[in-house]
From TrEMBL:
PROSITE patterns: ABC_TM1 (PS50928). This is ABC transporter permease. InterPro entries: BP-dependent_transpt_permease, MetI-like, MetI-like_sf, OppC_N. The chain crosses the membrane at residues 28-50, 93-117, 124-148, 154-171, 202-223, 262-282. Residues 93-279 form the ABC transmembrane type-1 domain. The keyword Transport applies. Pfam families: BPD_transp_1, OppC_N. It comes from Streptomyces longisporoflavus. SUPFAM superfamilies: MetI-like (SSF161098). Belongs to the binding-protein-dependent transport system permease family. It is a multi-pass membrane protein. It is found in: Cell membrane. CDD domains: TM_PBP2 (cd06261).
Length: 291
């Protein structure tokens, strides 16, 4: 059955643009992008969407299951789980966003400068990236917390450093290939400065690759931030955060009340998968990769 026959069978309800996107194999990235957008919107509008104060304790509603009053139930102190999930999206998304932004900007700057200048600077940058790459991000964050104390700000700083090589190494390889193209030599012969060539021509050609890497890294940074909070070194109670909610709800699993850990863990998994699928779709669309 053709695409148009499918649309007709649905009573004309499928917009033509959506059908064409699905026909081109973009259905999965579009769905993943929709999930990401919905989670971001839920975090932004949490005060309007949450039915209760996320930190409001109700001793009369401790560890209740789903009901008309509490759609996803309550935790061990009577706090509404849905409200805490909505508010918890804020730190759960903000920290990975800051990490990805910092690692992306610093990594891209180091990669482009190393590819352009070459020589001793390229060797220093490459050695630095190899050194940092040898440390697992979560271990580096734990060391930072041991030295400077627990807190989400420490996780952002240390994980930004840990994720820098993941972006910088790939961008450096692409920048070296771009640096060797004829148009770069032509611009130099026309009198363009190295700074202008990098900012006006080299960087714009590398931005699609940076965007793809940042999108994929965003999901992994969320896992690390959640794990950091899970072990008690990130967001501190009573603040709502998904990783901390998984940790707080762990004792209830044995008692047959897994709702808090289950729902918090589920939203983390769904969001990370959505980021990976969106990154794959952007890679095929922006970079022309078939994988």
């Amino acid at each position: 059955m053709s695409t148009y026959q499918l649309a007709a069978a649905a009573g004309g309800r499928l917009p033509l643009g959506r059908v064409r996107a699905l026909a081109r194999g973009q259905g999965v990235p579009i769905a993943a992008g929709t999930v990401v957008a919905l989670v971001v919107l839920a975090a932004v509008f949490a005060p309007l969407l949450a039915p209760y104060d996320p930190n409001a304790v109700d001793p009369l509603a401790v560890s209740q299951g789903s009901s008309a009053a509490h759609w996803l139930g309550t935790d061990d102190t009577g706090r509404d789980i849905l409200s805490r999930l909505l508010y918890g999206a804020r730190p759960s998304l903000l920290a990975p966003a800051l990490i990805t932004l910092a690692a992306g900007l610093a990594g891209t700057a180091l990669a482009v400068s190393a590819a352009w200048l070459g020589g001793w600077w390229d060797r220093i940058v490459s050695a630095f990236l190899d050194l940092v790459f040898g440390f697992p991000g979560l271990i580096l964050a734990v060391v930072g917390a041991a030295v400077f104390g627990a807190g989400l700000d420490i996780a952002v700083i240390t994980l930004s450093l840990a994720y820098l090589p993941y972006i910088a190494r790939i961008v450096r390889s692409a920048a070296l290939r771009e640096r060797a193209l004829p148009y770069v030599s032509a611009l130099g012969m026309l009198g363009f400065s190295g700074r202008r060539i990098c900012l006006r021509h080299l960087l714009p050609n590398l931005l699609p690759l940076v965007l793809v890497q940042a999108t994929t890294s965003f999901g992994y940074t969320m896992l690390d931030v959640a794990a950091f909070s899970f072990i008690g070194l990130g967001t501190q109670p009573p603040t709502a955060e998904w990783g901390l909610m998984v940790a707080n709800g762990a004792p209830g699993i044995i008692g047959g009340q897994p709702e808090q850990s289950l729902y918090a863990g589920l939203v983390i998994v769904v969001f990370v998968i959505a980021c990976n699928l969106l990154g794959g779709g952007l890679s095929r669309r922006l970079l022309g990769e078939d994988r």
